[in-house]
Amino acid sequence: MRELSELIEVEDPAWPVLGGELRDAAVPVELLDADAERAAAALVQTQVTVRSFLGAFVLHSGGAFVDDGWLRVYGSPAADNDRRLPSLARVNGYPPVTIPDWRPQAGLVVAHDVLGGVFVVQGGPADQVGLPGQPGEMVYFAPDSLRWDALGAGYGAWLSWMLAGGTEEFYEGLRWPGWRDEVRELDGDRGLTLYPPLWSAEAHQDLAATSRRVVAMAELLDFARETSVQFDEADPGFLGTV
């Protein structure tokens, strides 16, 4: 297990580039400040260096609300967390003290969207972890299909794309007029449930006509898991603890 010094004393740290992308993002970004001591502990447990976007984000941020909060990207525990955005450690159930051989079972949950979509860094061979894609690849649990999809990119490329406005393309057909006003003020542990449900044909006939309700993100994820098991007889696995 690498010590903190091995993770932060590197050539070409990613934060100058990532910090610039966060400041100049094509979509609104609310970046929370990190608690320095807890950020260092989170980085050690995550075991990635700050040469990577993931390591830099964990060390330097308490998470971010991207595109007016449609996407919530998890970092270290925030210094001031009035928005109730969970940390990467909490979402992934990190142990309270550093354990050298601890790892997430299938992958690392790094973000959720307001609809209950889950972004994960795939953690191992597909036949062992039950997720598509290759180790280190981003995979997404889609609330409209209740299935995992491999995204063909790692964390850094994915985050750069989201900040550059990729949310518009990625969520095409899943947004309705006025969504920003409904999403902007939501706390990080809240999401939106739709009726008819997002996975139904009725919902996509007119998303604006759906009934939308603010719920705890945990409730949204539990509903997605239960529905997936009911329809496909397949448990999607760990979706994060929010």
Explain what this protein looks like in three dimensions:
The mean pLDDT is 95. It is built from ten helices and nine strands. Helix 3 (36-46) packs antiparallel against helix 4 (53-60). A hairpin with a 4-residue loop joins strand 2 and strand 3 (71-73). The protein has helices at residues 4-8, 15-23, 36-46, 53-60, 88-91, 126-129, 155-170, 179-183, 201-205, 217-232, and strands spanning 29-31, 64-66, 71-73, 107-113, 118-122, 138-142, 147-150, 190-195, 211-216. The strands form two sheets. The protein has a seven-stranded antiparallel beta sheet, covered by helices on one side. The chain has a two-stranded antiparallel sheet with strand order 8-9. The relative contact order is 0.14. The protein starts with a helix and ends in a 10-residue tail after the last helix. The protein is α+β, with helices and mostly antiparallel strands and 242 residues long. The longest helix is centred in the C-terminal third of the chain and has 16 residues, at 155-170. It has one domain (4-232).
Kindly summarize this structure in a few lines.
By secondary structure, the chain is of the alpha+beta class. The protein is built from ten helices and nine strands.
Q: Poorly predicted ranges (pLDDT <50, ≥5 residues)? A: none
How many helix segments?
A: 10
From the alpha-carbon coordinates, what is the Rg to the nearest angstrom? 17 Å
**Beta-strand share of residues:** 15-25%
Overall average residue pLDDT: 95
Structural class call reads: alpha+beta
Count of separate structural domains: 1
